[in-house]
């Protein structure tokens, strides 16, 4: 059950609809008039996605254990799926829109290269869920570079990306050794890449692997397991993706604009201050705004009031610089929502 979105009482037709739902597949088939939007059902991206839907005024009621929710105020249905499966559903056009990690899209594409009609199109970087898929080895071991893992055991949940990564390494090494017999990239992989679904970091200590390929955010899990990173395979954040031919492109645009508005509001704050007109050129360079700062005259001769959007992460530095440039009465206001182009 989503924690931050307070569920409203379902309508009678929604209750009937959910009672009549035997499986997810038949449910999807019975929703021809609704755009389908996949969101991670659990895990690291789940809560941020629910917050994004709430900020975008996408109202829904999710019944306990049910992986589909009808949206009350738009012709949309949410489908709750494991993050790693979302690129397949979107890429094959079964679902129109989705939010997942860029790493999962890359993992899908490594096995199913996009064609003119299949594959996912990235609409927007959502700037949360930032992490790196990295090659890791025991900190105290003898392996220092990924080439030393060639021909050895590697464990991961990202087998397609890992195989592609080691295939590339093997092919480069083979060329460096002067091997020109045939296409090295088609040769059998000598590195043994094996799949595990979770707790990948335990594989080296348990003797299952010489190295792993796993996600790193803070690095705490990696260090706690006595591992160190020696290479990065992919850098990832959460992304909004769409299928190549969504059922309702206009609605896709509307949802995209709403989500972009929420993301912008999270990223920026509104900075207002008063400044003497003679210092305005300097302060405008500090706060150029997204397009240009808004400037209003003050009732006091020679003074103006300025408003501009500032990146939230730069707020303290911008305020320091404004003070040095002669600005006064500086205020920072949180943005609830935005619609900018
Ligand atoms: N430590 C992390 N920090 C930031 N983002 C992460 C982290 N781990 C995973 N992610 C992102 O979240 C996506 C989903 O990963 P997660 O491990 O939450 O999935 P899950 O397997 O569905 O959930 P769970 O691990 O709870 O079973 C990843 O593909 C990645 O994009
Ligand atoms: O660098 P950190 O901040 O420590 O995060 C990295 C960990 O997060 C993910 O696992 P998760 O906790 O989602 O569980 P899992 O091992 O079951 O996938 C990932 O697989 C790492 O183990």
From TrEMBL:
Enzyme class: transferase
EC number: 2.4.2.17
Reactions catalysed: 1-(5-phospho-beta-D-ribosyl)-ATP + diphosphate = 5-phospho-alpha-D-ribose 1-diphosphate + ATP
Pathway the protein contributes to: Amino-acid biosynthesis; L-histidine biosynthesis; L-histidine from 5-phospho-alpha-D-ribose 1-diphosphate: step 1/9
Matching InterPro entries: ATP-PRT_HisG_long, ATP_PRibTrfase_cat, ATP_PRibTrfase_CS, ATP_PRibTrfase_HisG, HisG_C, N-reg_PII-like_a/b, N-reg_PII/ATP_PRibTrfase_C
Domain of life: Eukaryota
One Pfam family it belongs to: HisG
Domain ATP phosphoribosyltransferase catalytic: 83-260
Domain Histidine biosynthesis HisG C-terminal residues, every copy: 265-337
Keyword list, A-Z: Amino-acid biosynthesis, Glycosyltransferase, Histidine biosynthesis, Transferase
Family under the similarity heading: Belongs to the ATP phosphoribosyltransferase family.
Record-given protein name: ATP phosphoribosyltransferase
């Amino acid at each position: 059950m989503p924690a931050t979105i307070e569920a409203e009482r379902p309508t009678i037709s929604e209750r009937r609809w959910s009672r009549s739902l035997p499986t997810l597949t038949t449910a999807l088939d019975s929703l021809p008039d609704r755009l389908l939007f996949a969101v991670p059902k659990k895990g690291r991206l789940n809560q941020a996605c629910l917050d994004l839907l709430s900020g975008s005024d996408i109202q829904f009621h999710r019944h306990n254990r049910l992986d589909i929710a009808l949206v009350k105020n738009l012709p949309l249905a949410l489908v709750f799926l494991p993050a790693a499966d979302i690129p397949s559903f979107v890429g094959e056009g079964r679902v129109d829109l989705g939010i997942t990690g860029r790493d999962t899209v890359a993992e899908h594409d490594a096995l199913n290269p996009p064609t003119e009609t299949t594959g996912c199109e990235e609409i927007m970087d959502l700037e949360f869920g930032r992490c790196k898929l990295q090659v890791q080895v025991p900190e105290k071991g003898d392996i220092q570079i990924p080439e030393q893992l060639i021909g050895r055991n590697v464990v991961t949940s990202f087998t397609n990306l890992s195989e592609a990564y080691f295939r590339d390494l093997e092919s480069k090494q083979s060329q460096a050794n002067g091997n020109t017999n045939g296409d090295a990239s088609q040769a059998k992989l000598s590195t043994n890449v094996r799949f595990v679904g979770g707790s990948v970091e335990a594989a080296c200590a348990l003797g299952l692997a010489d190295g792993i390929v796993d996600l790193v955010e803070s690095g705490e899990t990696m260090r706690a397991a006595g591992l160190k990173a020696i290479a990065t395979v992919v850098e990832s954040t959460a992304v909004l993706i769409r299928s190549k031919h969504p059922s309702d492109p206009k609605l896709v645009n509307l949802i995209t604009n709403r989500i972009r508005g929420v993301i912008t509001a999270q990223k920026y704050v509104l900075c207002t201050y008063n400044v003497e007109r003679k210092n305005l050129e300097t302060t405008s360079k500090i706060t150029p705004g997204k397009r240009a700062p808004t400037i209003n005259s003050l009732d006091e001769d020679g003074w103006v009031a300025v408003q501009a959007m500032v990146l939230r992460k730069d707020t303290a530095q911008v305020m320091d610089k404004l003070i040095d440039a002669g600005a006064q009465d500086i205020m920072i206001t949180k943005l609830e929502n935005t619609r900018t182009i």
